[in-house]
Amino acid sequence: MAARIIDGKALSKQLRVGFRERVARLVEQGVQPGLAVILVGDSAASKVYVGNKIKACEECGVRSLHIALPADASEAEVLATIERLNADATIHGILVQLPLPAHIQVARVLEAISVHKDVDGFHLYNVGALVTGNSIFPPCTPYGVQLLLDTTGIDVAGQNVVVVGASNIVGKPMGLMLLQREATVTICHARTRDLGQHTILADILIVAAGKPGLIVPEMVKRGAIVIDVGINRLDDGRIVGDVCFDAVKEKASWITPVPGGVGPMTVTMLIENTLRSAERAFKAVDSDEFQDWEAPTVRSP
Ligand SMILES: Nc1nc(=O)c2c([nH]1)NC[C@@H]1CN(c3ccc(C(=O)N[C@@H](CCC(=O)O)C(=O)O)cc3)C=[N+]21
To answer: Which of 57, 67, 92, 108 could hold 277 in an S-S bridge, CB 3.0 to 4.6 Å?
Structure first.
């Protein structure tokens, strides 16, 4: 029997209805949630993603500030932009689109963002919070995957989860989030020997490798849940994930499509984090998470 489809577009749509209500409540109290998106350079893919984020803001009533810097903008310029946004009380979330041009140090930029506005969850403080199991801004893509998994009704505790890809923005945080939920987590990566030997054991297989066609049915356990985080543009213009969807869906119990799976959820969770930040700024929700702890300024050598 073919797998059931986990529809990220539909779930996003549903969640965004609730977001509009939360924005309305905030606006009633005089708070207009605001998200700043900084894009350095003009990569085509980044433009599409940033465009989707801005669209989602509009859809939910979040004010968005799109700051486009030229590809040769200096690191100092990017840092100055962040400083300005850190100090701007009308901005509740700051996102610097990755990847950045090679002359800019990603770590310096991410550590410059106020931990209170780090809606991507990429600041070291938020990464540390995730490691210790009390995440403040969970990174958007793994956060979205977690909600997609929830819709299947499966309890991940005790399940074999295999994550393919060990990036800082998807694979590693994904593994940590599911470990927190008591799954048995394996993280595979480019140097993993005999990938299929690991993936075949997965009750839940999450693939974020950026390699079209990487996962074939022989590597998938019958009845597994398959989450495809990959987004690959083929020469013919088609967008596909890392999983051979048509073949694998005959073996899986649940599967996410690309597009329309994880991608829209990434954007949706960005809005969720921005609303949480705005609510927290207003003290509409418990702000104990930060425990009045002032995050240290991290200085790079
Ligand atoms: N600081 C930072 N934060 C990010 O969250 C971040 C980033 N940098 N850099 C790049 C990745 C990628 N990303 C996506 C956003 C939207 C879709 C999306 O909307 N996908 C749709 C359409 C895809 C398309 O048309 O190309 C879909 O899958 O259905 C996908 C991927 C956010 N990222």
So the answer is: 92
